[in-house]
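CORE FACILITY INTAKE
Project code: CF-77B
Contact: R.S. (postdoc)
Sample description: multi-component assembly, two entities in total
Requested service: structural model of the whole complex
Turnaround: standard
Below are the sequence entries exactly as provided by the requester. Do not edit them.
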Amino acid sequence: MSDANVKQLREELDSINLELLSLLSKRASIVQEIADIKTKQGVTKFDPEREKEMLDRLVEHNEGPFENDAVRHLFKQIFKASLQLQKDDSKKHLLV
Amino acid sequence: MSDANVKQLREELDSINLELLSLLSKRASIVQEIADIKTKQGVTKFDPEREKEMLDRLVEHNEGPFENDAVRHLFKQIFKASLQLQKDDSKKHLLV
């Protein structure tokens, strides 16, 4: 009985993982679009105020089970990964 | 025109952030359910094989813009946060 439950829960996890990947990828593409516009405008791409605003909004909507600090930490990692993507892109531009 | 685009893209980001939070929270609750069953069964909660299997499946489905390594890194952080949640839970159990 329990093993069947674990199997079913794991299937749910697998499906959520793929939904997360899809959303994270979509998010990264939007960040790239914003970065492209900002590059054309000649303004800085990283905006700490905007990052703080996004984190505050997330914590405001947090209903658990993660503590607010864990939400902040996790999303900082997500933001960092998107930012890293911009740096990789710049490197590619420099190489061509 | 570009500023209006940035505004719209940022609104999309905000909405994706909240969707991510909701999925991450749902994911964490499922991990907690699995951990509860495993505790009752007296088996170890952390399963490196299962983690590897999930990461492999994610990389298999990765269509960018993240590199596979970035996907692995990001999801390891997500898995770690859920695992950390279990540790916090255990501590709470020890305290009551």
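Facility notes:
- The radius of gyration of chain B is 18 Å.
- The helical segments of chain B are 2-41, 48-61, 68-95.
Invoice: internal transfer
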